[in-house]
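Recall the central idea of this unit: under ordinary conditions, the amino acid sequence of a chain determines the structure it adopts. In this exercise we apply that idea directly, starting from the sequence alone.
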Amino acid sequence: MADTRIELGEMTLQCKYGENGYQTPAALYSSGTGDLLALDRFEVAQGTAPSYNNLCDLDRLLQTATHMAAGFDVNFGEAPFLAVACKHGNPCGASAGSSPRQVVEKAVEGDLRAIFGGLVLLNFDVDEEIAETLMVHKMDEGRRLLDGIIAPGFSQGAVEMLKRKGDKCRLLQNPALKAMDRDSLDVAQRYRYVRGGFLAQPNFTYVPELASDGVEKSGEAPPAVLEDMVLAWAVGSTSNSNTVTLVKDAMLIGNGVGQQDRVGGCKLAIMRATDAGHDTGGAVAYSDSFFPFVDGPEALAAAGVKAILATSGSVRDGEVADFCASKGITIFRYPDSEGRGFFGH
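Accordingly, the structure predicted from this sequence is:
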C-alpha cells in the first residue's frame, strides 16, 4: 500500500503572529519543491519580514499574476507587462500592457480606496519612475500607503524612495517574476485544512483558448476586447467565488467577489466600479460560472457592458444568449464542466 502521509516541511520564516495577534506561533514552511516562484524564494530587499497575512496575499497574487501571464501567453503568444494589486486575498487593481508605468497607473486607478494598505506585484523591475508612480499617482497630497511591493528587483534609488517609517513597506524581490508565462502556473497538489484532517485536489491550471472551437462565440470581439476578456478571466478566476469581474481598456474597474448569487456578483462589480469613479459603458464582464437566470446579464446590460466571458451549462443558456443578442452584447462561453472558475469556494 502506498504511503499517503505528508510531511509538513521545513520552517523557513517565523512570523510575528498569524492572521490575528493571538494566533502565535506562526511560520512559513517550505516543502522543498524547487519551484522558482515558491514563497521562500522571495527575498526582502527592504522592510521588515513579511507577516502571515502578507504571505497569504503573496500566494494569491501569484495565482492571479501567473494566470494573467498564462492567459496572455496562450492567447496572444507572450505575457506583457503586468501589475496586480491585492487586498485581503482578492485583486483590487490589475492591468496588462506594453508600458510599465501605464500598467502601474491603471492598477492603482482601479480602486484608489481599496489599494490603500494593500500589496502590489509586478513582473518588471522597480526604478525611481515606477516607485514615484506607486507612491503619488492620483494622490492629492502625501504618499500612498502600501504594505508591500513585490517585483523581480528594485533599484537602490527606488528602495530609498519606498521606505516607510518603521520599515512597514515590505519590498520583496524574485527575478523569476520576469519570466512568467504559460509554464508558470502552480501545478502542485493543493491542500486545505479541515477539522480533523485536510482536503486535497489538483491545482488551478485551466486556461481558456478563446480562438478554439470549444468556445461558443456570439458576436464580434476585436483584439482589445479579447485582451480584456483574458484579463477579466485571470482576475475573476483567482478571486473568491462567486465572482463577476469588470475590465475596461486593459484595467480592472470592478471585482464583485464572494457573493452567494450571481446577480449579486454583477451588481457588486458594477457598484464597486461606479463607486471608484469608472464609466462601465463598453466594459467586458467575466463570470466564474454560468448565469442560471437572465437577471445577471440584465444588470450588466443596464450598466453598458458590451461583452461577456462566462461558461455554459445552465438550462437557461438559450435565454441568456437571446437576451445578449437583443442588447448587442457579445458573449463567449466554454463548458462549465471544463473551465468553471471557482476559487477559494
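The first strand starts at residue 10 and ends at 15.
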